[in-house]
Structures are given as C-alpha cells and as structure tokens.
Amino acid sequence: MCLSSQRVQTILKVLLSNPTTKTVTRSSQQTYYCFEVYHHQRWWVATGWGHCLLPQDPPAWTDIHLEPTCSIHTFRLPPPTRIGKQQKHVTWVWTDPEWIRGQEGWQYTDWTWKFWSKTRTRRERWYRLAERKEYLVNL
Questions:
Q1: Which of 70, 16, 15 is nearest to 39 (CA)?
Q2: Scanning 17, 32, 36, 89, which has the fewest C-beta atoms within 10 Å of its C-beta?
C-alpha cells in the first residue's frame, strides 16, 4: 500500500490520533482497524538486548493493554464469521502489506518498566491496518 496516497493518509491520521486499537467507518460497508502490538526486550550484560525476560516483565509481545499476543510474524486476522439468521458474513483483509514500525522507535524504561530511561528495558510499537468487510448472503 502506498503511504503517500490521500486515502491512506486520511485513514492513518484518524487511526493514529489515539494510541489504542482504533475503528474508522468510511461507509456502512467499509470499516478499518489499526491493530497494534508491542515488542518488549530486556538488556543483559552478557548478551545485550534480548527476549529473555524476568517473570514480572510483560511478555515479549503484547497488545496496548499489556495482554499477551502473537508476534508480528504469527499475528492473524480474526476468522470469517456468520452472524444471525440473515447469513451476514464478516471477513477481514489486510490493507497494509506488512507491519509498520511506530515512528517513535524503541521506548526505553528502567528495570521495573515504570520510569522512562535508557537503562534496562525497552519496547517498540508496530501497527498494521485491516479492513473489516460485511456482506449478506442470499440463501
């Protein structure tokens, strides 16, 4: 997807204005979502930055609410579903070809993940746009 297109810029501007999973409805049939995941790492003297985390650390990959989620390599859209007696089908399609690294880059914190510093832990935000499509199937 071309990030310079007017449509994409409009969607990105609205979606990225609030740091949560977002929804934008452009028409009754087009709904766009911005899925966000965070990648967490800890610094170890012997090995440097890595995925070896302490039990009190957030998982290596989380959503914005620090709930465990899949990595950007294994994250999948929700499966197609049928809703109600009218055979309403819901499908998902990625509108971005790949995950996009957040403009802020790595965000560094202290040993406890509470105070911003450049010492022991860090996280990186990734996001990707998807379209939710709904349609009715005649039986």
A1: 70
A2: 17
Confidence of residue 135 (pLDDT cuts 50, 70, 90): confident
Question: Could you give the CA distance from residue 86 to residue 5 in angstroms, rounded to a whole number?
Answer: 36
Please give the Cα distance from 121 to 119 (Å, whole number): 6
Residue 119 CB partners (closer than 8 Å, separation 6+)? 43, 108, 109, 110, 111
Q: Which amino acid appears at position 81 of this protein?
A: T
Q: Could you tell me the two tokens for 74?
A: 């294994």
Q: pLDDT tier at 35 (50, 70, 90 boundaries)?
A: very high
Following DSSP, what letter does each residue of the chain receive, concatenated?
--TTSHHHHHHHHHHTTSSS-EEEESSSSEEEEEEEEEEEEEEETTTEEES---TTSPPSEE-TTS-B---TTT--PPPPEEETTTTEEEEEEESSSS-EEEEEEEEEE-TTSSSB-SSSEEEEEEEEEEEEEEEE---
